[in-house]
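Quick one: sequence plus adenosine-5'-triphosphate SMILES, need structure tokens.
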Amino acid sequence: MPPTISQTVEAQDLRISQGKRQILCTHTLGFSAGEVWHLIGPNGAGKTSLLRALAGELPFQGTLTIAGCPPGTLPARRVTAFLPTDAPLLDDLTVAGNLSFMAAAWSRPLGPLLALAGQMGLDDWQGDWPVTLSRGTRQKVALAAGLGLGLPLTLLDEPFATLDIASRAVLTEAIRARASGGGTVIVTTHGAELLDVPHRRLEIVAGRLKTGTA
Ligand SMILES: Nc1ncnc2c1ncn2[C@@H]1O[C@H](COP(=O)(O)OP(=O)(O)OP(=O)(O)O)[C@@H](O)[C@H]1O
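Reply:
Sure thing.
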């Protein structure tokens, strides 16, 4: 089982840049177990950049820790699922192979990944190769894998964007369930998809992160 973590993310004097331009800063920030955060802001505000910094894919200045460890280090990666838009799949494995690989790589049971895949209508696609799938279907595979792992920190970048209506409902429920199970979930959307999920707001305003209630 992944460790239970009460304070999943902590940041102090965090500054994130793209090239030479600082795009985001915050004095202090903390995300705890069981919380869903809706990360919002206009196009280009820095939402993806923040998620990439949390996932260890973008350098930053200041202090940022995931479960007490710097992003990108092995202990932090073991507890983080990052689902970017167009999340990559392993193209030389079938859909079923991708799900099995993810479960094995994270030492997690395969059942929840398969269950979520089934709820998203992927049962008929298990033997297919990712390269033959539509963008939305690929995204479903990635979401089933990422959320099915049940890791302490789940980062979802516009996860609803390519999903059909039925799968949007499945995803909403999976986000709610992940938080109920003690996970921290950070979700970017430009819409009101999280209306039915208890959550807090994390807004980027003029390059600064502001927290609030939904
Ligand atoms: N690889 C890059 N090199 C240079 N600048 C970049 C790069 N990626 C993003 N940026 C810039 O960083 C800023 C923040 O981009 P980011 O993708 O984080 O915004 P976002 O809030 O996720 O936007 P959107 O809602 O459009 O997805 C933008 O001004 C963007 O132009």
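The mean pLDDT is 94. The domain at 7-86+151-213 is CATH 3.40.50.300 (Rossmann fold).
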